[in-house]
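Preliminary data (for renewal application), magnesium ion complex.
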Amino acid sequence: MKAMENWNTKVLPSDDESIAQAAALLQAGEVVGFPTETVYGLAANAYDTKAVAKIFKAKGRPQDNPLIVHIASLDMLSPLVSEVPELAKKLAKAFWPGPMTMILPKSDRIPDAVSAGLSTVGIRYPSSETARKMILASGLPLAAPSGNLSGHPSPTTAAHMLHDMNGRIPMIIDGGECEVGLESTVILVKPDRVRLLRPGGITVEMLEEICPVEVDNGVLHAVAPDAKVASPGMKYRHYAPVAEVTIVEGSLPAFDRYMQQQARDGVYAMVFDGDEKGLPVPALPFGKEGHPEDQAYRLFDLLRKCDDLGAKKVFVRSPDQSGIGLAVYNRLLRAAAFRIVKLEDEE
Ligand code: AMP
Ligand code: MG
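Predicted structure:
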């Protein structure tokens, strides 16, 4: 195996020639960075334990955090799982290809390295054309987590991924900016309902059109490091820039007053478009208020910008939690290590 940090990482355009090169690397047991509609991923052959180990090494990912396996046709599903419940078929029909991962009982072909020793496996069928072409060209189910160093914000551009993975992997396919900007919705499929483990682009409201949805406690609450959780990814620090992030709840006037007290060098604010005026600190526009898809699209890029700017503290106006807003809030809570300030309006 090639030593870590020894690759001359190539960033190639998303064309047939690059996809053929990526497929050859994957077949040879190497890892490749690729775009999906959610975030950039770091892929390897899901059947190859040694290839999968390279993902964990390149990311510095804890071994007990399982990987999602990506497919590009419904025919690819059955070898990966021991059964496909009726509800899973209905959900697949409604939301695949798309940003939804279903946790299903795994088949014997899934190595423990992928499932982190669990009896289940997460499966996703992405809608991104490049992702689908890469899966089909390799002829392999691809295990792929987000393509960031563990703990960093997920990459939503090839440049983000290169920043984290330069020298650590042979290739990244550049497919431009990711459409959704946040990782997939993760659901545990039960016979008559689903449990939401991680919110994402397929929203609670959309899932409820198909079946009842239980929202796991870990979606909006901190999980103790030693707790037994449905989804191991819940307990890790995530999405965090170097700066200390704080979520601020309350009206815009209350936020403005609070920022007057907080203003000093290295302090930044993430606010809704048009709300920058009169703030005593530099503002990073976070999309239109009430448009959570804007916040989803921008969140990880803005968190990375905070590092580029050398921000020490970032105060973020709390986004609307409906639709994909729940996913934005879930990622922000982790970026902020659950630091929330609740402001009262003045009488
Ligand atoms: P990432 O690969 O960075 O998008 O993270 C994948 C997420 O899916 C993590 O939070 C994992 O803990 C979760 N996940 C993957 N496979 C399973 C599984 N079999 N059971 C529960 N959660 C899973
Ligand atoms: Mg991740």
